[in-house]
Specification:
The structure is a single chain. The chain contains twelve helices and five strands. The protein has helices spanning about 1-5, 10-20, 35-40, 60-65, 80-95, 100-115, 120-130, 135-150, 155-165, 170-175, 190-200, 210-225, and strands spanning about 25-30, 55, 190, 230-235, 240-245. It is mainly alpha-helical and about 250 residues long. Strands 3-5-4 form a three-stranded antiparallel sheet. Strands 1-2 form a two-stranded parallel ribbon. The protein is about 50% helix and about 10% strand. It folds into three domains: about 1-65, no CATH class; about 80-165, Helicase, Ruva Protein, domain 3, CATH 1.10.8; about 170-245, Arc Repressor Mutant, subunit A, CATH 1.10.10.
């Protein structure tokens, strides 16, 4: 089927898609759409048979969202409440089973509030908190650092990622920046990536330990900090593909 589709021109492909969906109930998701032209070119391929089929668009551009007039108004996501923010932060730092120690509860609430209800900011900040000592003085110092590092507005998430980057050990900074060599959201083979890190000299040589094992620890550390996302896991365990939380530093 894939080979057959490759040989079709654009018109033939759209016609085949239309016939495939005709008189069928379908759900189609267009994720992270940046240009309305994508929809304008494809819309003729989606038959409206009044059978409750649905098409969902997601976009970081409100301008794109407002141009998609197809059965409803855009649904804008709202920031999390203070309670929801703290719950997400707590879950990411301590896991599903544990709760934030009472001694750190107030500081945890303060840190969560400074993330302005943005899930990405909360997840990234939690990635930092999970790697530092769970001590009142350490968390207090961290909370104070957020005041000068994070600002309100649309750049909030970038500031959060910058903060996480600043707290990275030197060897992990080089590994993270290497993702810039790949396309945004590209699913990268974990083994290939780790070999490249080793070839570039990013991975410390430790006597009696394989460089591949050290590189895997680096990758898992970045994943644990929520700076790298798992695309797919291996059936036998371990990461098969991954991609980064793309940001500019």
């Amino acid at each position: 089927m894939d080979e057959e589709l490759k040989n079709l021109n654009e018109h033939e492909f759209l016609d085949k898609l239309y016939k495939k969906l005709k008189r069928k109930r379908y759900l189609v998701i267009f994720d992270d759409v940046w240009d309305i032209k994508v929809w304008n070119e494809l819309r003729i391929s989606f038959p409206d048979d009044k059978n409750q089929s649905r098409i969902i668009f997601t976009s970081r551009s409100s301008n794109v969202a407002s141009q998609v007039q197809y059965g409803g108004e855009p649904h804008y996501l709202h920031p999390l409440s203070e309670k929801q923010s703290f719950e997400l932060l707590q879950k990411k730092v301590f896991g599903e089973e544990e709760e934030c120690p009472q001694a750190l509860h107030g500081l945890g609430m303060e840190i969560a509030e400074k993330c302005w209800g943005l899930p990405l900011a909360l997840v990234v900040v939690a990635g930092v908190l999970a790697t530092i000592e769970h001590d009142i003085l350490v968390w207090k110092k961290f909370a104070e650092s957020l005041t000068s590092t994070m600002v309100s507005g649309t750049d909030q998430w970038k500031k959060s990622l910058e903060l996480s980057y600043e707290h990275l050990p030197y060897h992990l900074k080089a590994c993270l920046l290497y993702f810039a060599a790949f396309r945004e959201d590209e699913k990268i083979g974990a083994k290939s990536l780790m070999r490249l890190w080793i070839a570039e000299g990013f991975v410390e040589i430790i006597e009696g330990k394989r460089s591949e094992d050290t590189a895997e620890e680096y990758l898992m550390d970045l994943i644990g900090r929520n700076l790298v996302m798992v695309g797919k896991n291996r059936s036998i365990g371990g990461v098969k593909t991954c991609y980064d939380s793309r940001f500019d530093i």
